[in-house]
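Figure 2 data, in text form.
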Amino acid sequence: MSVAEEVRRYWDADSVVYDDAPNHHPTGAGELAAWMAALSDLLPPAPSRVLDCGAGTGFLSITAARLGHRVTAVDLSPGMLQRLRVKAEAGGLEVEVIEGPAEQPPPGKFDAVIERHLMWTLPDPVTTLRAWRDVAPSGRLILFEGMWGTADPLERIRRTARDLATRAGSAPGRSRHGGHHAEYPRALKDSMPLGSGATPAALAALVAESGWSAPRLHRLRDIEWASNLDLSLLERIVGVPARFAIVAGA
């Protein structure tokens, strides 16, 4: 089985429960408003042509479409994309849906390329970033990412504390991941250059290496704050992982 097929099968299986994890599909009014503000601030003026790579079940695509952008959503998993279609139809929104790998984007020209929590899954991040630049040569790149995994020693400690706080304040059987199933097989995860997470500095360096100009770092404090308010008191004391956006190009 090829790596692409293994990844596709993983996300097809996960598509059934993906949105059960709060950080995958926020539903609180405050956090949704914070995401709407972040996209409104960081995307070019609407209506622009936006490519959402690794769109999954469509959280970013739907939000951008609600802001008046013309969105094309690309994902390797047909299961994920089917859920995106259902959401778009339910919201009366038009989102073009394309099944395929993120490193082979559809022809541009796009005004912006966006992604959320996709970078860790890419076998070759720099090559993929270059492919995105090719379809948005005068456009903007926005990577929505967060601190997780083993990239930062302090975040590893906070993640352990966060898991303990979640278990302590949860109803029996509740998972921190919602219904999210097991992680990638170890061999597959180890084959991904960013499989253990990445710091903002590491991502900014990759963006610059791929030819995107002037990478800028934005801390998404409003999103952190809004999502933290929806947690139990114990979880709020530990806090949510730092979230940020790397923006480059026009």
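Caption note: Residues 3-249 form a domain with the Rossmann fold fold (CATH 3.40.50.150).
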